Amino acid sequence: MNKAFLGASLAVMISHGGIAMAENVLRWGAARDIYSLDPYSLGSTSNLAFLNHIYEGLVRYTPDFEVEPALAESWELIGPATWRFHLRKGVTFQNGAGFNADDVLASMKRVSDPESPLRGNIPTYVSTTKIDDYTVDIETTSGSSLFLRDMTNIFMFDAGWLKDNDAEAPTSVGAQTENFATYNTNGTGPFMLESRVPDSETVLVVNEGWWDEPKHDLDRIEFTPITSAPTRVAALLSGEIDLTESVPVQDLERVGASPEIEVIQRSDLRTVMLSFNRRETLADGRPNPFNDLRLRQAIDMAVDRELIGKRIMRGKAHIAGTMVAPEIPGYDADLDLPTPYDPDKARALIEEAGLTGTEFTLTCANDETVNEESMCQAVVSMLTRVGLAPRLDIGPRAVQSPKRSSGKADMFITSWANEPTLDAYSLLVQVLSSADEAQGVANYGDWSYPEIDELTTQISVETDEARRLELEREALRIAKDEVVLVPLYQQPMAWATGDGISEVTIRADNKPRHWLTRMGE
């Protein structure tokens, strides 16, 4: 953590009227920094959740995860697969430009570019047509309402701002491409960027010209990444920060004992899973052993999930046998039976496959999922005991993420919360499907299962919900049988707030929504 952060927080903000004293400053201590200020640069839930304070989509979620109007006042299906959106009038971007149909066209062109990391977030998208200044038609491959849920994470840019700043092309964290939108913002949302120093501090101030009625009472948000868990807890207990969305599970009892701190905890929607490189060869040129189903089955049997849940997650995680959380549509309780821990059978399978002593690297991040480093250390130990020779590659996610996406990781961690769709279709189309222009964008192992692809295509056009869920369960059964991924658990979620905060909204998707946060009354 930056030493300057331990001093008094800056309490001056720049407003439209000049310099004013900021009465309500939210000091937000996060476990990690955001990747980029460009919301299209990476399909990261935490990155998108932060940027949703600056940018907005045509639609958004209610507290009950129903789709409601945002920059679009209304919409209707005008054909088998065409959605007509009626745009909200009187909305301005933070640079003063008015919002209209041209901005939707520019945004949809940018996000659907084949090089856009968020292209896979809208797999059924085809094209956008301007009808008039405040009406657009969006053509999709089906009339499924899942498209509206996908659109909650597609934020709108100012077309003129993109053009003037040579930022019409998408950027990508994974491909390490950048432009003006990587370091600058211009949204329509409740807050706007004042300053950013990567890995140190990002400051937001209230957008006085926001079109919606504010429910928050904040003047300023000071977002500080504090990657050290002990330092983050110390900052919370000493009152140096007001809120963190990442209390280490090992510190929950101590933090909760403080009368000034409120702890809110539950299981997250995010399922943490082991993943495999499934290309013909590994990055070092060796024939890929993970293409042998027996090895994947052995690894599934060799991991003691119960021990990880008890010792590393302190009993706070939901042990998983399937790849989506119980709250996600498409979940099947019959599949949620974890593979029994059986190291002897795992060792026998490895010997049968002739893979005893196989060397490979498990790539993990020390700042991504809850206690990931400790979990990966335990997995390496468990796999070593059944006759394999894994090595742990640990580092910050900014370093590890490109290894996963470029095929340089042998085994790696996938964590998936099915956002923003909040349906198993998200995992199926983005992770389990074969990689192409619009599908499998997070299929970093490059696996391919035609049966899953065909089922996912059927799901994308199925308008009957019961039939769609049946197809999703069938696809997840195939993925489980083939051990495409090894589900471990839904990770615990623990927020903590100081007594300066009177109201904060925490939902199952674990996204901060500080346009609803209120400080002490």
TrEMBL record:
Molecular-function GO terms, alphabetical:
peptide transmembrane transporter activity
Which Gene Ontology terms describe the biological processes this protein takes part in?
peptide transport
| Segments forming a coiled coil | 452-479
Top-level taxon in the UniProt lineage:
Bacteria
Entry GO CC: ATP-binding cassette (ABC) transporter complex; outer membrane-bounded periplasmic space
Domain named Solute-binding protein family is located at: 66-436
Q: Which UniProt keywords apply?
A: Coiled coil, Signal, Transport
UniProt-annotated location(s):
Periplasm
Pfam families attached to this UniProt entry: SBP_bac_5
- Spell out the SUPFAM superfamilies in the cross-references: Periplasmic binding protein-like II (SSF53850)
Q: Hey, which family's this protein in? A: Belongs to the bacterial solute-binding protein 5 family.
Name by which UniProt lists this protein: ABC transporter substrate-binding protein
Q: Which organism is it from?
A: Paracoccus methylarcula
